[in-house]
Design a protein that fits this description.
With about 325 residues, the chain is mainly beta. It is built from three helices and 21 strands.
Length: about 325
């Protein structure tokens, strides 16, 4: 039977969340390699990925095939970012194990109150018929997704991130995808001379610290998920760091006391699909970053206020 005829056959009612669950299982337990194209802000980047799951441990390597040849290599919770144009390697701790090194969020169940998930049909894709699932936000505080999930392997072969006007602001699509349960360790070696790099280990974040700031206003569904102190380049003291999430989208907040004579940073910026908003609140530099609409960042930033002192302060 041809693919065209297969796609023309009536399809029984499908559940979008069930397809997202199948996709999550495939991403968590499948070893694969391939190439994909990421398009955003009028630019396209081609990348190669190698992803291996062995005895529950995740190893992943992501290589830019365009531009400066940057690489990211994950071994468990440790990620090394290689920046050959800067002759720099940065070692970070990223607990949890990401898929596509963060290109796709985790579509668990906690986000459902703020989004509508729908199965909208099937289309021909890279590997064959794919289930098309739409994750649509219920308000303008977050972005939406359209996902093409291969029916046979349950792997996401294409995704689109859209704004409130249904404009696609990021598109990720595989152009090559192969499966291999015996990927060798050599596949995770960087293709550059590591002895010629300057190595920097990012200081781990101190978590469990009571937030010194609070959000007086917050979009529906966003809750504090991380609070701590983060050492950052260019700052003499740890920066207050908070993360707010609705179960799918997340926003990072950084608050610091500016150095004497420092010029405050204000306004908005964007890098790819991530936006940033900076302002000054009660003499503190506030920067909010996330893959959400710019107005969401501004709404959060302008509602921040120092937390009321506790009884032991």
């Amino acid at each position: 039977m041809s693919v065209a005829l297969l796609l023309a056959l009536p399809v029984a009612a499908e559940d979008g969340q069930a397809w997202l669950d199948r996709m999550a299982g495939a991403l968590a337990g499948t070893s694969y390699s391939g190439e994909f194209v990421c398009e955003s802000a009028g630019r396209a980047e081609r990348l190669r990925i190698v992803h291996r799951v062995r005895d529950g441990a995740v190893a992943e390597r992501l290589v830019s095939l365009t531009g400066n040849g940057r690489e990211l290599i994950r071994d468990g919770d440790e990620v090394v970012v290689y920046l050959p144009d800067q002759k720099l390697a940065i070692i970070e701790r990223r607990p949890g194990g990401s898929d596509l090194l963060g290109a796709l969020p985790q579509f668990g169940g906690e986000f459902r109150p703020w989004y509508e998930v729908s199965y909208v049909g099937r289309e021909a894709a890279l590997l064959g018929p794919a289930a098309v699932v739409v994750v649509r936000p219920k308000d303008g505080y977050r972005f939406g997704y359209r996902l093409w999930i291969d029916e046979a392997t349950h792997m996401p072969v294409r995704s689109e991130l859209s704004d409130a006007a249904s404009r696609v602001i990021e598109r990720v699509r595989f152009t090559l995808l192969e499966f291999d349960d015996a990927i060798a360790d050599a596949a995770f070696e960087p293709a550059l001379d590591r002895t010629k790099l300057r190595w920097v280990r990012q200081a781990p974040q101190t978590t469990g610290v009571a937030p010194a700031w609070r959000a007086a206003q917050m979009p529906p569904g966003f809750r504090l998920s991380v609070s701590g102190l983060q050492a950052m380049a260019g700052t003499s003291a740890p920066v207050s760091h908070m993360v707010f999430s609705d179960g799918l989208a997340s926003v990072s907040v950084f608050i610091e006391t500016p150095a004497p004579g420092a010029v405050p940073v204000t306004g908005s910026g964007r890098s790819g699909v991530a936006s940033a908003f900076s302002t000054v609140v009660q003499g503190h530099q506030v920067t909010v970053v996330g893959e959400v609409p710019p107005d969401t960042l501004k709404y959060i930033a302008t509602g921040l206020t120092p937390a009321a002192p506790g009884p032991d302060r």
